[in-house]
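ARCHIVE RECORD
Type: protein–small molecule complex
Small molecule: pyridoxal-5'-phosphate
Source of inputs: curated submission
Record status: active
Notes field left blank by submitter.
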Amino acid sequence: MRKNYLLTPGPTPLPPEVCEAMAQPILHHRTPQFQAVLKEVTEDLRYVFQTKNDVFILASSGTGAMEAAVVNLVSPGDTVLTVEGGKFGERWTELCAAYEIHAEVIKVEWGKAVDPVLIKEKLKDSKPKIKAVFTTLCETSTGVTNDIKAIGEVVRNTEAVLVVDAISGIGAIDLKTDEWTCDMVISGSQKGLMLPPGLGFISVSPKAWKLIEVSRCPRYYFDLKTAKKALDKTDTPFTPAISLIIALRAALGMMKQDGLEAIFTRHKKMADATRAAMKALGLSLFAPTAASDVVTAVCAPEGIDTEKLVKTMRDSYGVTIAGGQAELKGKVFRIAHMGFIEEFDIILAISCLEKVLAKMGYSFQLGVGVGAAQKVFLG
Ligand SMILES: *Cc1c(COP(=O)(O)O)cnc(C)c1O
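STRUCTURE (tokenized, with ligand):
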């Protein structure tokens, strides 16, 4: 017998309510029954995204929604700004390159947050003018949260629009889309929203619509003007991912019941507990400043191979955490505390980590990590 536990920064575990919704017989999408669902989730998405703007649901993973942002906002030859502090920041630059959009890049040392002043300077000095600033709320590859509120203040009074990849942040940590003047906020289904992979989300501000009106990037499936025309009639341009949208209704219902504040508090507590446990175990965080509340990246202890650590936890004990990506492969492991994860999942993951570390010859007092986490949860 094997019981499996998932603590990766996407996909995340599914609540039983979501599994049950997924198992329903299929509805036809051009019916009043499905329209009622679409209306409800569109409204509830506004609550979770903290916006009055439209939030579009795309049948794609999160990256599809990132691509939608790029192709709808700008035109080949335009200049934009991308912030690269990890693998997902780099994705913005790659997407722009694919459409021959010139990206000025701010390279941030991995494990650090971007200094909003650098964005301010680029916006002021760059010629031709920067049309869009592409940022990341949580850089899931390094475990860093960027200060989107401060970035919003910098971008707000310029002609540029602010685009935020919040794929791993929405539904887990605070992102005030309207108050912080985020023009496009992107998310995906398989992170904080507690769904299987397969949906992308994108919110669009009036300032962003102005750019969309004049952009000349080739696009078809991800054309937001087509999506808007359909959404205004509570419809979708193409066949939507019906079962996932029904499941989305269940997930958003749970989130509304808890309330955003309680959700953010739960994530912060789990992050604090995880960080306290790592410290007690004598392990150092990869991102000690600006540490994200959705995933904790931990540096490998001397002589411990993180690939082997992750593999042993998963294959011998059924506890799946993540290793490092790209240049962090073998150097860090990552424990997610996002979505349908709570206190005792974290305790369980730390106890498994302790067991495997002990077996691998790392020296520490068994139970200190679990104890430190318990103390945070008790407090
Ligand atoms: C997971 C993730 C992505 C990629 O999303 P896909 O759904 O795999 O396309 C992009 N950005 C961030 C910050 C992520 O966490």
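CURATOR ANNOTATION: The mean pLDDT is 97.
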